[in-house]
């Protein structure tokens, strides 16, 4: 028992540390990969295709090792993807939304400073909360609603005067386009995340199989995005124009990011996840100072503090009311009844 507890604790903090590092490196590396002349930049829609395909392949490998034999592996895939095709088709909805979100992230980091994007993108907590209330009938405490207000205030401070200054050439950046991209990306993230939670809670299908279904539809929608948006550019410059080792690193980080979050949800809790996200914001700001000659203004510093406080308050568990001895027996009986619980997103 003690060994199982120790293992669970180790996995908890290992997944949180990995999430913090991955979240920090992803935004910084995405921003750094776009700091080239426009004619030398890679086509972001092609990167999304590779990211979706890589995520699907990793999940297929995990399922294969879980099933242990190739025969069982094929049988499992046939059951979930072919026999249960109606259930699989439902995953096309978040796949399309995630494809939109991934493309908008590239648009945002191409038009905003890495630190500004990192803080502003925390609006996804607000959108996730709103969609949870609408789709899952989730109840939020007064402190959680208050944290959402604080989040709005913090983001407003960050956006004042662009959040900070940088010596990096920003003549080809558009702050308005970047902000709109972040807001729509947050809406996409909130809806897709809550929809995905609904699918997980409504069946016994593993998170890895769900990610295979997501990757399957995500790859198709991403390819359609390439053809509709950048077909002429690819015909002129080629599919791999602007690709470098750093671009492949960005693709890998984006592909594995969702898998890391799944581990955090499995082994950690929301308050610790909030601390990990807050820490990644601080690390991103520090990295931007050294990598991009970024100068943090007082408005940005105040806004970042507000956002981190909001994240903490939103993930803070509610205080439990003391139970009187007279109600103890009734409580024990109630706890034996099956209750559908919704975990915070």
SSE topology sketch:
Layout: H1 2-33, H2 44-67, H3 70-83, H4 85-90, H5 92-111, H6 114-120, H7 124-136, H8 142-159, E1 164-166, H9 175-201, H10 207-237, H11 245-267, H12 270-291, E2 294-296, H13 298-315, H14 328-335
Antiparallel strand pairs: 1-2
Largest sheet geometry: 2 strands, antiparallel
Strand order across the largest sheet: 1-2
Report the sheet-strand fraction.
Answer: under 5%
Spans of at least 5 consecutive residues whose pLDDT stays below 50 are 323-345
Helix content: over 70%
Instruction: Note the overall shape.
Output: globular
**Count of individual domains:** 1
Structural account:
The chain has helices at 2-33, 44-67, 70-83, 85-90, 92-111, 114-120, 124-136, 142-159, 175-201, 207-237, 245-267, 270-291, 298-315, 328-335; strands spanning 164-166, 294-296. With 345 residues, the chain is mostly helical. The chain has one domain. It has a two-stranded antiparallel ribbon. The radius of gyration is 22 Å and the shape is globular. The protein starts with a helix and ends in a 10-residue tail after the last helix.
Observed structural traits:
disordered C terminus; two-stranded antiparallel sheet; 76% helix; 2 strands; mainly alpha; 345 residues; 14 helices
């Amino acid at each position: 028992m003690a060994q199982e507890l120790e293992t669970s604790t180790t996995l908890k903090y290992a997944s949180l540390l990995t999430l913090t590092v991955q979240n920090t490196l992803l935004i910084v590396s995405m921003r750094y990969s776009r700091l080239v002349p426009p004619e030398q930049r890679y086509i972001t829609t092609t990167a999304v295709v590779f990211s979706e395909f890589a995520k699907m392949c990793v999940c297929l490998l995990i399922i294969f090792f879980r099933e242990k034999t190739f025969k069982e592996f094929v049988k499992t895939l046939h059951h979930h993807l072919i026999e249960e095709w109606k259930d699989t088709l439902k995953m096309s909805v978040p796949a399309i939304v995630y494809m939109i979100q991934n493309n908008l992230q590239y648009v945002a980091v191409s038009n905003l400073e890495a630190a500004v994007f990192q803080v502003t993108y925390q609006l996804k907590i607000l959108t996730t909360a709103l969609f949870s209330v609408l789709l899952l009938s989730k109840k939020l405490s007064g402190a959680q609603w208050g944290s959402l207000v604080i989040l709005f205030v913090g983001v407003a401070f960050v956006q004042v005067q662009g959040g900070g200054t940088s010596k990096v050439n920003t003549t080809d950046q558009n702050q308005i386009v970047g902000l709109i991209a972040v807001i729509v990306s947050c809406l996409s993230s909130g809806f897709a995340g809550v929809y995905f939670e609904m699918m997980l809670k409504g069946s016994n299908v593993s998170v890895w199989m769900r990610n295979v279904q997501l990757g399957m539809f995500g790859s198709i929608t991403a390819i359609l995005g390439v053809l509709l948006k950048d077909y002429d550019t690819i015909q002129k410059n080629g599919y791999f124009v602007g690709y470098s080792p750093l671009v492949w690193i960005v693709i890998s980080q984006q592909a594995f990011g969702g898998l890391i979050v799944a581990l955090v949800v499995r082994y950690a809790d929301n308050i610790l996840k909030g601390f990990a996200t807050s820490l990644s914001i601080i690390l991103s700001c520090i990295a931007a100072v050294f990598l991009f000659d970024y100068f943090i203004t007082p408005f940005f510093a105040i806004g970042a503090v507000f956002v981190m406080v909001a994240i903490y308050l939103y993930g803070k568990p509610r205080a439990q009311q003391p139970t009187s001895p007279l109600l103890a027996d009734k409580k024990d009986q109630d706890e034996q009844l099956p209750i559908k619980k919704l975990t915070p997103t």
